[in-house]
Amino acid sequence: MTHYSSSDLKNMERFYRGNLINSVTGYKSANLLATRSINGIDNLSIFSSVTHLGSDPAMFTFIQRPLGHGVGHTYQNLKETGVITLNHIQLDLVNKAHQSSAKYPESTSEFEALNIEKISRDGIQAPFVKMAAIQVAATYESEYFLKENNCILVLCKITDIFFNEGIQSEDGWLNLEKAGSIAVNGLDGYATGTVQKRLRYARVGDDISEIEL
After folding, report:
1. Exposure check for the chain: N or C terminus, fewer CB within 10 A?
2. Torsions phi, psi of 195, nearest 5?
3. What is the pLDDT of residues 109-130, one digit of tens each?
4. Which long-range contacts (CB under 8 A, 24 or more apart) does 159-163 make?
5. What are the backbone dihedrals phi and psi of residue 92, each rounded to the nearest 5 degrees, phi first?
6. Could you tell me how far CA 174 lies from the centroid of its own chain?
7. pLDDT in tens, 65-89
């Protein structure tokens, strides 16, 4: 078994280390976060750091890298307008979604530059990705500065959820395989998921049982 110590990690070439560390924790969600600036310019960028935070209230988080090392238009727009949308990525959209990580100028909308069709909904300031099977609108809630790496943990409160018919079970669960949602392995490895089984809530003394897909 290959072994890397902390000193090995510290002395690794930057991109080699980045590829290793970004993949060692497992598959991550891949989402397009969309915002609209106070000047009316729509922004779209792929994020692999979106994480479920809680269901009541319904919230998610994402990580904003140090502002001196990235464009940060998503974060800037969210702070100024308070509104953001989360859009799942399907396989047909992967190439364009990946390209959205490029550092486009503030005056450029990635929707237009990458020819990604958007839709607007009444009462929600930020746009949505039209072809996304699952779309979420949220508002800025709070943030926490992470002194350990100068990143910002951004908390967003979910206000609206939209998704295609036929992907939700009777108990509320969304089948991401049916939705075609992709995951990311590391920084650049995109994967589709196959749901093998669902298991019922675990209780001490109870046998494990499956939930029908």
Report:
1. N
2. -80, 115
3. 999 999 999 999 999 999 999 9
4. 159/124, 160/121, 160/124, 160/136, 161/134, 161/135, 161/136, 161/137, 162/121, 162/128, 162/134, 162/135, 162/136, 163/133, 163/134, 163/135
5. -65, -15
6. 16
7. 988 665 689 999 999 999 999 999 9
Angle at 31 between CA 170 and CA 180, to 5 degrees: 50
Residue 31 backbone zone (phi > 0: left; psi -120 to 50: alpha; other: beta): beta
Is residue 18 within 8 A of residue 65, CB to CB? The reply is: no
Q: How far apart are CA 97 and CA 190, in angstroms?
A: 11
Strand 83-88 versus strand 51-55 pairing type:
unpaired
What is the reported pLDDT for 213? 87
Residues in the chain: 213
What amino acid occupies position 57? P
- Indicate the CATH number for domain 28-211: 2.30.110.10
Residue matched to tokens 């029908």: 212
The angle at the Cα of 42, spanning 192 to 111, to the nearest 5 degrees, equals 45
